[in-house]
Amino acid sequence: MPQDPHPPYLSPEYKSTVLRAPARPFVAPKLDPEAVELVDPVYGHTPVGELDHDLTRQHPGEPLGERIIVTGRLLDSDGKPVRRALIEVWQANAAGRYAHPGDQHPAPLDPNFTGAGRCLTDDEGRYRFVTIKPGAYPWRNHHNAWRPAHIHFSVFGTQFTQRLITQMYFPGDPLFPYDPIMQSVRDPEARERMVARFDLDTTEPEWALGYQWDIVIRGEA
Known about the structure:
EC number: 1.13.11.3
Number of domains: 1
Number of helices: 4
Number of strands: 11
InterPro entries: Intradiol_dOase_C (IPR000627), Intradiol_dOase_core (IPR015889), Intradiol_RC_Dioxygenase (IPR050770), PCDO_beta_N (IPR024756), Protocat_dOase_b (IPR012785)
Keywords: Dioxygenase, Oxidoreductase
Organism: Thermocatellispora tengchongensis
Helix content: under 10%
Structural class: mainly beta
Shape: globular
Strand content: 15-25%
Family: Belongs to the intradiol ring-cleavage dioxygenase family.
Largest sheet: 5 strands, mixed
Order of helices and strands: HHEEEEEEEEHHEEE
């Protein structure tokens, strides 16, 4: 039988799941769906801006690191494009540090890189971000624990109650076998779908390397 492509809520090697995983059976709340939409958090109080998708142009200077383009399509289980969907990303800088007070990793912050962006998919379900390739960073889950380079993605459906959060990795990272978060996805094919592919057609000469990564928000794949 094929393995479940989704990781279990409790993955003991990924230590924080011990505290986060539910210890009792789920009880479905009796809520009015329309009322829930009114009280759920709204991410962003302004329209998506012209430079929100370009994380390298949000400050006066150029950020340090390897400039990259990440693009792909947002699809449903039938392969149809999901149009005008909100996609958000956040990531560490090239030194492997987040622009967040909670990150005390002794790596330099970059004053020209905040590490967050967003865009809307077009009529073909395509998104596009320009950013800096993030660095690996230590995370104290176990002895000598380092996270592979990755970008966090948040994908919204037609309402804010429909949200998928996932991570995109880069091909050939030697840290894959040592990362309990990635290894919590036990199906090898599902793990492979989390890895972007280098794409020469997306790459822009003398400017930025390109990566393609499609997101399927429903279905087995």
